[in-house]
Amino acid sequence: MPEHGEPILLPPADLAAATRRAEALIPTPYGDFRMIAYAGDAEDYTPHLALVHPEMDPKDDVIVRLHSECITGDLFGSKRCDCGEQLDRALRMVAAGKGIVVYLRQEGRGIGIINKLKAYQLQDQGLDTIQANLHLGLEIDARHYGVAQGILQDLGIRRIQLLTNNPLKVDSFGEGPIEVVRRLPIIVSPGEANRNYLRTKQLDMGHWLK
Ligand SMILES: Nc1nc2c(ncn2[C@@H]2O[C@H](COP(=O)(O)OP(=O)(O)OP(=O)(O)O)[C@@H](O)[C@H]2O)c(=O)[nH]1
Ligand SMILES: [Zn+2]
């Protein structure tokens, strides 16, 4: 076990190995979705989740949101980030546009909730979201999107309209089998608690927030 303060090495994420494990219809305030769980291991308690509109047509340019897990924002409405509002907006857009939300279990940009809470504590001491990860000996962004591409392929999708402000997310599709035909912005108005965070994302992480 690493001593306190030592860098924590995360296991290499073999995310592309996830396969379809179970599915069921989930009625939500946004409408009905087919929820499909994808995991490398059938006993995985945190599988990636695809919420698929019942009339999604894989031959369309499907509206897709790849949403990285944020327990604080998605579940509890934390105002420190924009995730909860983005998820709400994405679910609305996907419900209206017969698309898909892929909920990727990459909490805290892939460092997990324990490290994210430590990073928040450092941010309360004056570090920004990038410096806090680095101070913990962790990557600024440890996420991978290969698994999401595997999920989209499993659903028969070839062309997508991607809901994101993050250039790295668009770039992750590279020359792969899924073509991003359009990027759709998903911008949340800043509030008091997330203003600095959003400014760092825009100025230092290159997010398209204008
Ligand atoms: N390590 C760390 N993770 C954070 C912090 N704030 C939010 N997150 C995580 O960041 C992830 C969301 O990333 P964002 O940069 O907000 O958005 P994105 O998914 O890269 O880009 P969009 O598609 O435009 O939303 C989620 O996994 C959150 O848990 C933070 O201060 N530190
Ligand atoms: Zn968040």
From TrEMBL:
GTP binds at R65, L66, H67, S68, E69, Q86, E107, G108, R109, T129, T164, K169. This is GTP cyclohydrolase-2. Belongs to the GTP cyclohydrolase II family. In the N-terminal section; belongs to the DHBP synthase family. Pfam families: GTP_cyclohydro2. It catalyses: GTP + 4 H2O = 2,5-diamino-6-hydroxy-4-(5-phosphoribosylamino)-pyrimidine + formate + 2 phosphate + 3 H(+). Residues 21-185 form the GTP cyclohydrolase II domain. GO terms for cellular component: cytosol. One of its GO terms (biological process) is riboflavin biosynthetic process. The keyword tRNA-binding does not apply. One of its GO terms (molecular function) is GTP cyclohydrolase II activity. Binds 1 zinc ion per subunit. InterPro entries: GTP_cyclohydro_II, RibA, RibA-like_sf. Gene3D superfamilies: GTP cyclohydrolase II. It comes from the Bacteria. The keyword Zinc applies. Zn(2+) binds at C70, C81, C83. Keywords: GTP-binding, Hydrolase, Metal-binding, Nucleotide-binding, Riboflavin biosynthesis, Zinc. Catalyzes the conversion of GTP to 2,5-diamino-6-ribosylamino-4(3H)-pyrimidinone 5'-phosphate (DARP), formate and pyrophosphate. Its cofactor is Zn(2+). SUPFAM superfamilies: RibA-like. Its EC number is 3.5.4.25. Pathway: Cofactor biosynthesis; riboflavin biosynthesis; 5-amino-6-(D-ribitylamino)uracil from GTP: step 1/4. The active site is at D141, R143.
